[in-house]
Amino acid sequence: MRKVLLTLATLTLSVLIGGDLTIYASDIESENNVIQIYEKNLETGEETRENIPVSTDENILNAESYQTETIAPNIIIGEDESVQVPDILLSTMPYSAIGRVKATYYDGTSATGTGFLFGPNDVATAAHVLYNRNGSIAETVSFWLPGTGGPVATYTGTQLAIPSEFMDNRDINYDWGMFHINSNIGNTNGFLGWTTDISVDTTVQVIGYPSDQMMMAGKQVKSVTSTLIKYDVDTRPGNSGSPVLNRSLDDQIVAIHTGGIDSEQLNRGTRVTSRMASVLSTYRNE
Protein backbone atom coordinates (compact mmCIF):
# COMPACT_ATOMS: atom_id res chain seq x y z
CA MET A 1 0.00 0.00 0.00
CA ARG A 2 1.36 3.32 -1.07
CA LYS A 3 1.47 5.87 1.72
CA VAL A 4 1.44 9.61 1.38
CA LEU A 5 2.82 11.19 4.53
CA LEU A 6 1.80 14.75 5.20
CA THR A 7 2.76 17.24 7.86
CA LEU A 8 0.15 17.91 10.50
CA ALA A 9 -0.64 21.24 8.87
CA THR A 10 -0.41 21.50 5.05
CA LEU A 11 1.61 20.11 2.22
CA THR A 12 3.47 22.70 0.14
CA LEU A 13 4.46 21.76 -3.38
CA SER A 14 6.82 23.60 -5.69
CA VAL A 15 5.27 24.07 -9.13
CA LEU A 16 6.82 24.68 -12.50
CA ILE A 17 5.34 28.12 -12.90
CA GLY A 18 7.24 29.29 -9.85
CA GLY A 19 6.19 30.01 -6.32
CA ASP A 20 4.50 27.68 -3.89
CA LEU A 21 1.08 26.07 -4.11
CA THR A 22 -0.52 25.09 -0.82
CA ILE A 23 -2.81 22.09 -1.08
CA TYR A 24 -5.11 21.23 1.81
CA ALA A 25 -6.18 17.73 2.80
CA SER A 26 -9.76 18.31 1.64
CA ASP A 27 -8.50 19.32 -1.81
CA ILE A 28 -6.40 16.18 -2.13
CA GLU A 29 -9.34 13.99 -1.11
CA SER A 30 -11.73 15.52 -3.62
CA GLU A 31 -9.27 15.39 -6.52
CA ASN A 32 -7.95 11.87 -6.03
CA ASN A 33 -11.01 10.31 -4.37
CA VAL A 34 -9.06 9.34 -1.29
CA ILE A 35 -9.68 9.76 2.41
CA GLN A 36 -6.91 11.12 4.59
CA ILE A 37 -6.32 9.41 7.92
CA TYR A 38 -4.35 10.72 10.90
CA GLU A 39 -2.29 7.94 12.49
CA LYS A 40 -0.45 7.79 15.78
CA ASN A 41 1.87 5.03 16.94
CA LEU A 42 1.01 4.66 20.63
CA GLU A 43 4.33 2.96 21.36
CA THR A 44 6.68 5.51 19.77
CA GLY A 45 4.47 8.60 19.62
CA GLU A 46 5.12 9.03 15.87
CA GLU A 47 2.34 10.89 14.03
CA THR A 48 1.68 10.61 10.29
CA ARG A 49 -1.05 11.18 7.71
CA GLU A 50 -2.02 8.56 5.15
CA ASN A 51 -4.16 8.87 2.03
CA ILE A 52 -6.29 5.77 1.42
CA PRO A 53 -8.04 5.32 -1.95
CA VAL A 54 -11.83 5.07 -1.77
CA SER A 55 -12.96 1.78 -3.29
CA THR A 56 -16.11 0.84 -5.21
CA ASP A 57 -15.37 -2.89 -4.92
CA GLU A 58 -18.45 -4.69 -3.53
CA ASN A 59 -16.19 -7.04 -1.55
CA ILE A 60 -14.84 -4.01 0.32
CA LEU A 61 -18.15 -2.15 0.70
CA ASN A 62 -19.81 -5.29 2.09
CA ALA A 63 -17.53 -7.39 4.30
CA GLU A 64 -18.64 -10.52 6.11
CA SER A 65 -18.32 -11.10 9.82
CA TYR A 66 -15.95 -13.81 11.03
CA GLN A 67 -17.41 -16.23 13.54
CA THR A 68 -15.64 -19.00 15.39
CA GLU A 69 -17.47 -22.06 16.53
CA THR A 70 -17.38 -21.23 19.95
CA ILE A 71 -19.36 11.73 23.35
CA ALA A 72 -22.32 13.69 22.53
CA PRO A 73 -25.54 13.27 24.58
CA ASN A 74 -27.29 9.93 24.31
CA ILE A 75 -31.07 9.81 24.36
CA ILE A 76 -33.64 7.62 26.09
CA ILE A 77 -36.79 7.74 23.96
CA GLY A 78 -39.72 7.34 26.34
CA GLU A 79 -39.18 4.39 28.67
CA ASP A 80 -35.71 2.83 28.56
CA GLU A 81 -36.07 -0.41 26.60
CA SER A 82 -32.42 -1.48 26.67
CA VAL A 83 -31.71 -4.83 28.31
CA GLN A 84 -28.61 -6.48 29.71
CA VAL A 85 -26.97 -9.13 27.57
CA PRO A 86 -27.05 -12.41 29.55
CA ASP A 87 -23.63 -13.67 30.63
CA ILE A 88 -24.23 -16.94 28.77
CA LEU A 89 -24.20 -15.03 25.46
CA LEU A 90 -20.99 -13.06 26.03
CA SER A 91 -18.84 -15.78 24.48
CA THR A 92 -20.96 -15.92 21.31
CA MET A 93 -21.06 -13.60 18.30
CA PRO A 94 -21.69 -10.74 17.95
CA TYR A 95 -21.26 -10.08 21.68
CA SER A 96 -17.81 -11.70 21.90
CA ALA A 97 -16.47 -9.08 19.46
CA ILE A 98 -17.70 -6.08 21.48
CA GLY A 99 -15.77 -4.57 24.38
CA ARG A 100 -15.13 -1.49 26.45
CA VAL A 101 -12.59 1.17 25.45
CA LYS A 102 -10.69 3.39 27.86
CA ALA A 103 -8.65 6.29 26.49
CA THR A 104 -6.26 8.40 28.55
CA TYR A 105 -5.45 11.72 26.90
CA TYR A 106 -2.41 14.00 26.91
CA ASP A 107 -4.33 16.59 28.94
CA GLY A 108 -4.53 14.10 31.84
CA THR A 109 -8.22 13.24 31.47
CA SER A 110 -9.69 9.88 30.52
CA ALA A 111 -12.95 8.55 29.15
CA THR A 112 -14.62 5.24 28.36
CA GLY A 113 -16.69 4.15 25.41
CA THR A 114 -17.44 1.05 23.40
CA GLY A 115 -15.44 -0.60 20.64
CA PHE A 116 -15.74 -3.70 18.50
CA LEU A 117 -13.40 -6.03 16.68
CA PHE A 118 -13.55 -5.73 12.89
CA GLY A 119 -10.40 -7.79 12.27
CA PRO A 120 -8.00 -10.09 14.12
CA ASN A 121 -6.37 -7.21 16.05
CA ASP A 122 -8.45 -4.28 14.84
CA VAL A 123 -10.93 -2.31 16.95
CA ALA A 124 -13.33 0.39 15.71
CA THR A 125 -14.96 3.06 17.86
CA ALA A 126 -16.14 6.68 17.67
CA ALA A 127 -13.43 9.23 16.87
CA HIS A 128 -14.42 11.36 19.86
CA VAL A 129 -13.47 8.47 22.14
CA LEU A 130 -9.89 8.74 20.82
CA TYR A 131 -9.75 12.53 20.42
CA ASN A 132 -11.61 14.44 23.11
CA ARG A 133 -13.55 17.68 22.94
CA ASN A 134 -10.59 19.57 24.42
CA GLY A 135 -8.52 18.72 21.36
CA SER A 136 -6.37 16.17 23.16
CA ILE A 137 -5.45 12.90 21.42
CA ALA A 138 -5.27 9.63 23.35
CA GLU A 139 -1.88 8.81 24.85
CA THR A 140 -2.91 5.26 25.80
CA VAL A 141 -5.88 3.11 24.81
CA SER A 142 -7.13 -0.10 26.44
CA PHE A 143 -9.71 -2.58 25.16
CA TRP A 144 -11.51 -4.85 27.63
CA LEU A 145 -13.33 -8.05 26.70
CA PRO A 146 -16.03 -8.97 27.56
CA GLY A 147 -16.32 -5.96 29.86
CA THR A 148 -15.94 -5.28 33.57
CA GLY A 149 -19.04 -7.29 34.49
CA GLY A 150 -17.28 -10.64 34.10
CA PRO A 151 -13.86 -12.21 33.56
CA VAL A 152 -11.84 -9.47 31.94
CA ALA A 153 -9.17 -9.73 29.28
CA THR A 154 -7.43 -6.40 28.69
CA TYR A 155 -5.58 -5.53 25.49
CA THR A 156 -3.37 -2.54 24.79
CA GLY A 157 -3.72 -0.25 21.79
CA THR A 158 -0.57 0.00 19.66
CA GLN A 159 -1.65 2.41 16.92
CA LEU A 160 -4.73 4.58 16.46
CA ALA A 161 -6.22 6.25 13.41
CA ILE A 162 -9.01 8.77 12.84
CA PRO A 163 -10.08 10.72 9.74
CA SER A 164 -8.26 14.00 9.31
CA GLU A 165 -11.63 15.71 8.79
CA PHE A 166 -12.51 14.92 12.40
CA MET A 167 -9.04 15.68 13.71
CA ASP A 168 -8.88 19.06 11.98
CA ASN A 169 -12.51 20.19 11.81
CA ARG A 170 -14.42 18.10 14.36
CA ASP A 171 -16.69 17.04 11.49
CA ILE A 172 -19.46 14.78 12.88
CA ASN A 173 -19.72 13.07 9.50
CA TYR A 174 -16.28 11.56 10.20
CA ASP A 175 -16.79 10.62 13.86
CA TRP A 176 -15.23 7.18 13.61
CA GLY A 177 -11.82 5.77 14.31
CA MET A 178 -9.89 2.61 14.97
CA PHE A 179 -6.86 1.18 16.70
CA HIS A 180 -4.72 -1.93 16.55
CA ILE A 181 -4.27 -4.00 19.73
CA ASN A 182 -1.44 -6.24 20.89
CA SER A 183 -3.31 -9.51 20.26
CA ASN A 184 -5.05 -11.36 17.43
CA ILE A 185 -7.97 -12.12 19.75
CA GLY A 186 -10.38 -11.61 16.85
CA ASN A 187 -9.28 -14.96 15.44
CA THR A 188 -10.65 -16.53 18.62
CA ASN A 189 -13.62 -14.32 19.50
CA GLY A 190 -14.70 -13.48 15.96
CA PHE A 191 -15.03 -10.03 14.41
CA LEU A 192 -17.74 -7.98 12.74
CA GLY A 193 -18.24 -7.21 9.08
CA TRP A 194 -19.95 -4.18 7.57
CA THR A 195 -22.24 -3.05 4.78
CA THR A 196 -23.13 0.25 3.12
CA ASP A 197 -26.69 -1.02 2.58
CA ILE A 198 -29.19 0.68 4.93
CA SER A 199 -32.64 2.21 4.53
CA VAL A 200 -35.38 3.85 6.58
CA ASP A 201 -37.53 1.45 8.67
CA THR A 202 -34.74 -1.15 8.90
CA THR A 203 -34.55 -2.60 12.41
CA VAL A 204 -31.11 -2.09 13.93
CA GLN A 205 -29.55 -3.03 17.25
CA VAL A 206 -27.04 -1.04 19.30
CA ILE A 207 -24.85 -3.15 21.62
CA GLY A 208 -22.35 -1.62 24.00
CA TYR A 209 -21.16 -0.65 27.46
CA PRO A 210 -22.99 2.33 28.95
CA SER A 211 -22.01 0.80 32.32
CA ASP A 212 -20.06 -2.19 33.58
CA GLN A 213 -22.59 -4.48 31.89
CA MET A 214 -23.14 -5.03 28.18
CA MET A 215 -26.52 -3.64 27.14
CA MET A 216 -28.49 -3.95 23.91
CA ALA A 217 -31.53 -2.26 22.41
CA GLY A 218 -33.13 -2.36 19.02
CA LYS A 219 -35.62 -0.34 16.98
CA GLN A 220 -36.08 1.22 13.58
CA VAL A 221 -34.00 3.58 11.47
CA LYS A 222 -35.86 6.88 11.09
CA SER A 223 -33.55 8.82 8.77
CA VAL A 224 -30.68 8.06 6.39
CA THR A 225 -28.30 10.58 4.82
CA SER A 226 -25.10 10.03 2.87
CA THR A 227 -23.05 9.98 6.09
CA LEU A 228 -25.41 9.60 9.08
CA ILE A 229 -28.33 7.48 10.20
CA LYS A 230 -30.80 8.32 12.98
CA TYR A 231 -32.78 5.80 15.01
CA ASP A 232 -35.03 5.63 18.06
CA VAL A 233 -32.87 3.05 19.83
CA ASP A 234 -32.22 3.87 23.50
CA THR A 235 -28.57 4.58 24.36
CA ARG A 236 -26.58 6.14 27.20
CA PRO A 237 -23.15 7.74 27.67
CA GLY A 238 -20.60 4.96 27.23
CA ASN A 239 -22.41 3.66 24.15
CA SER A 240 -20.27 5.90 21.94
CA GLY A 241 -18.43 3.64 19.52
CA SER A 242 -21.00 0.86 19.73
CA PRO A 243 -21.72 -1.08 16.54
CA VAL A 244 -25.12 -0.38 14.99
CA LEU A 245 -26.02 -3.79 13.63
CA ASN A 246 -28.46 -5.07 11.07
CA ARG A 247 -28.99 -8.49 12.66
CA SER A 248 -30.72 -9.78 9.54
CA LEU A 249 -27.47 -9.29 7.56
CA ASP A 250 -25.23 -11.74 9.43
CA ASP A 251 -24.32 -9.22 12.13
CA GLN A 252 -22.89 -6.61 9.76
CA ILE A 253 -22.55 -3.07 11.06
CA VAL A 254 -24.32 -0.27 9.21
CA ALA A 255 -23.03 2.56 11.44
CA ILE A 256 -20.95 3.43 14.50
CA HIS A 257 -23.00 5.00 17.30
CA THR A 258 -21.89 8.53 18.19
CA GLY A 259 -24.61 10.22 20.27
CA GLY A 260 -28.05 11.76 20.39
CA ILE A 261 -30.06 14.70 19.11
CA ASP A 262 -32.12 16.29 21.89
CA SER A 263 -34.30 18.38 19.59
CA GLU A 264 -35.37 15.32 17.60
CA GLN A 265 -35.42 12.78 20.43
CA LEU A 266 -33.37 10.44 18.28
CA ASN A 267 -29.92 8.88 18.46
CA ARG A 268 -27.47 8.83 15.59
CA GLY A 269 -24.53 6.96 14.18
CA THR A 270 -21.91 7.61 11.53
CA ARG A 271 -22.98 5.55 8.56
CA VAL A 272 -20.71 3.00 6.88
CA THR A 273 -19.81 4.73 3.62
CA SER A 274 -17.41 3.77 0.85
CA ARG A 275 -14.80 5.92 2.61
CA MET A 276 -15.20 4.20 5.96
CA ALA A 277 -15.37 0.76 4.35
CA SER A 278 -12.17 1.42 2.38
CA VAL A 279 -10.31 2.38 5.55
CA LEU A 280 -11.69 -0.56 7.56
CA SER A 281 -10.67 -2.95 4.79
CA THR A 282 -7.18 -1.45 4.59
CA TYR A 283 -6.60 -1.77 8.33
CA ARG A 284 -8.11 -5.26 8.54
CA ASN A 285 -5.67 -6.46 5.89
CA GLU A 286 -2.50 -4.81 7.28
UniProtKB/TrEMBL annotation:
Residues forming the catalytic site: 128 (charge relay system), 168 (charge relay system), 240 (charge relay system)
The protein, known as: Serine protease
EC number(s) recorded for this UniProt protein: 3.4.21.-
Molecular function terms from GO: metallopeptidase activity; serine-type peptidase activity
Protein's gene: mpr
GO terms of biological process kind: proteolysis
Pfam family, one: Trypsin_2
Recorded family membership: Belongs to the peptidase S1B family.
Superkingdom to which the source organism belongs: Bacteria
Top EC class for this record: hydrolase
PANTHER family assigned: SERINE PROTEASE (PTHR15462:SF8)
InterPro entries cross-referenced by the UniProt entry: Glutamyl_endopeptidase, Peptidase_S1_PA, Peptidase_S1_PA_chymotrypsin, Peptidase_S1B
Organism placement in taxonomy: Bacteria, Bacillati, Bacillota, Clostridia, Lachnospirales
Alphabetically ordered keywords of this record: Hydrolase, Metalloprotease, Protease, Serine protease, Signal
